[in-house]
Amino acid sequence: MPKKNYRYLLFNKPYGVLCQFTDNDRPENPRPTLKDYITVPHVYPVGRLDRDSEGLVFLTNNGPLKHRLSHRQFAHPRTYLVQVERIPDDKALNQLRQGLMIKDYRTRPAQVKLLESLPLIPPRDPPIRYRKSVPTAWLEMTLTEGRNRQVRRMTAAVGYPTLRLIRIAIGVQKNEKTLNLTLEGLNPGQWRELTHSDLIIFKDWGIF
Questions:
Q1: What is the pLDDT of residue 4?
Q2: What CATH number is associated with residue 127?
Q3: What is the model's pLDDT at position 97?
Q4: Residue 206: its pLDDT value, please?
Q5: Which residues, including other chains, have CB under 8 Å from residue 65's CB and lie 6 or more apart?
Q6: What values do phi and psi take at 14, rounded to 5?
Q7: Does residue 176 lie within any of the structural domains?
Q8: What amino acid positions are annotated as catalytic residues?
Q9: Which band of pLDDT confidence, cut at 50, 70 and 90, is reported for residue 2?
């Protein structure tokens, strides 16, 4: 089993919460941070979610594992629910799937699916601002990289701005195996430790 001092947490980050433990930009009037929800000391998020994004954050004090899951060379998948303005057409969806130029880089191919029904998710607090005369749609997008505000920039580049963004899964891969860490059982603001079975899989894969 892994060393007893290693901790592995899954957290469902609410909208408006900084994905860090201190608000260095506004020390006199700090915004909500991870410290307002997580009491475990010395753990750090693996990758980040923007303040206006929601969903799954994986935290650990295991440095090598944090590097493995954060570095784009390992291409670990991350899955998002994305509410966009208007209904994307096939051309836009295929652009997202094939990869597109954003500023000075080209995104990797992504898995993108237009959902036929609304996802079963809690309402956002506060609700999104949208125009009643303009329809919205939900996409499920899986990326293998996590550049700054990448999903938002991708949907904007094809003409469908993101209104709401929720990360629902982080995939841990080795060889041809994938373990998907998900939001299952976590309401916004809740966290839990990884299960014993998850840790056994990590150990068997030699990730620790």
A1: 60
A2: 3.30.2350.10
A3: 97
A4: 65
A5: 46, 202, 207, 208
A6: -75, 165
A7: yes
A8: 50
A9: very low
Domain of 88, in residue numbers: 8-204
Q: How many domains does the chain have?
A: 1
DSSP state of 192: E
Q: Are strands 78-85 and 105-106 parallel, antiparallel or unpaired?
A: unpaired
Task: State which amino acid sits at residue 138.
Answer: W
Instruction: Report, as an integer, the average pLDDT of 94-110.
Output: 93
Inside any domain, residue 21: yes
Residue with tokens 């980050």: 13
Phi–psi pair at 112, nearest 5 degrees: -135, 130
Distance CA 89, CA 91 (A): 5
Residues found in the chain = 208
Tell me the CA distances in angstroms from 50 to 12, 20, 62, 89, 174, one per residue in order.
13, 10, 23, 27, 27
Q: Residue 3 falls within a domain, yes or no?
A: no
Q: Check whether 1 has a pLDDT greater than 60.
A: no
Note the pTM of the prediction, 2 decimals: 0.91
Q: How many angstroms separate the Cα of 191 from the Cα of each of 12, 38, 58?
A: 6, 7, 10
pLDDT (tens digit per residue) in 7-64: 999 999 999 999 999 998 887 888 999 999 999 999 999 988 999 999 999 999 988 8
Q: Quick check: is 32 in a domain?
A: yes
> CB–CB of 88/55 below 8 Å?
no
Match 């994307």 to its residue by tokens: 88
